[in-house]
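One chain given next:
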Amino acid sequence: MALGKPLLKLCVFVAVLVVVIGGSSGAHDYQEALSKAILFFEGQRSGFLPEDQRLKWRGNSGLSDGWNYNFDLTGGYYDAGDNVKFGFPMAFTTTMLSWSVIEFGDNMPPNELRNALVAIRWSTDYLLKTVSQPNRIFVQVGDPIADHNCWERPEDMDTSRSVYAIDAPNPASDVAGETAAALAASSMAFRSSDPGYSETLLRSAVKAFEFADSYRGAYSDNANVKDGVCPFYCDFDGYQDELLWGAAWLRRATQDENFLNYIQSNGKTLGAEDNINEFGWDNKHAGLNVLVSKEVLEGNVYSLDSYKASAESFLCTLIPETSSSHIEYTPGGLIYRPGGSNLQHATSIAFLELVYANYLSRTSQSINCGNVYVSAQTLRERAKRQVDYILGDNPLGLSYMVGYGNNYPQRIHHRGSSLPNIKDHPQKIACKEGSIYFNSTNPNPNVLVGAIVGGPGEDDVYMDDRADYIKSEPTTYINAPFVGVLAYFANNNNPN
């Protein structure tokens, strides 16, 4: 949801919109979609690319990141179609990729599980750097205002690579808490394949959480970083949810009673029951409640029952047949929430539905939604509708995953994808020289395979318009939960 700054409004033929009228062919190849959803992350890489880089149109970038602190901050991901490394959404992306592997890794073919772990490690190697200095967390690299005023390849970028850091006792509970969650979750993802790395991740997760909890407050309130992180990834919904989220993941990863006590004793004071119908890079409440509910459903910790009640209250709102239903759907059946990058809601909510369905199935339980009981099968069916809509079962017959199916967005809001790549055009393309490509009606020359765009509006309409970043820009946190969702359906085409 990094807000790209349009240079000129692009005129797009209406014909582009209706490549095909009506639905898709029906059955989807979820295995293919899974492979492509993971591949997308290679297009978002910053740093020195390895020899086995599969998206060959990308090259090295950001190799001097951190120089003004005399510290190596290379690596990590660009969040969307720009060239900035925002720590808050990157950490959330990492948590969701790791949760995808934890819950659904057994559904992945061995090669795709390896690819998913590689995608996680590209981020965790960077996140480890951000918390490696005592009493400091690096939260961002790159000046977003300067970056968004340019349309240039990451390999060419000459805008300021400003480093934004927060030193104790200044607070950064949100970013540090999410980083703790990311490192704790990823420690579980790597536990069997690389136990040494897993231990490193867990130690750093504890350190990041201590920073988050000791110096409480929102990172975007800090004058030193506010102009860099806002309005793009301000903490709009408060830092309290990240403290609980980080503690919940550390409880899951360590089974330490201290983290259990933290979740129990701080639930009400940190607002665990607030805003339960939100889940994304800024608001973790619904995901927190689903995550913590696992121990309640398994009959281990009844003192966390309020989290389970909140999780089930949220899930009931997704079911139109229930008396508490209030989530908006488009006429074509897509979950819709006002704001940018709507498909982030569809992918993350579908993920939570599948995770909770797994918890219900393992314990032979269902959800009491007042006038109806909701089963694991119902949750899986609801999730599958979102998946199929995204892959092409929608009024436009358009796949919102680039490179999947025959009809997908050709003009996504993404610098590297829309500009000639460095192999075909080795000469530098300067900041404003990219405008001609931004304003072109031609399809992007480089296919960012697996990218899921922001998606259609509340009327199911999508214009294939590079300038309309709200609808046409992909983000890492749209894709990350979808990896787990696709892994489930790749092995369970029938959601029973």
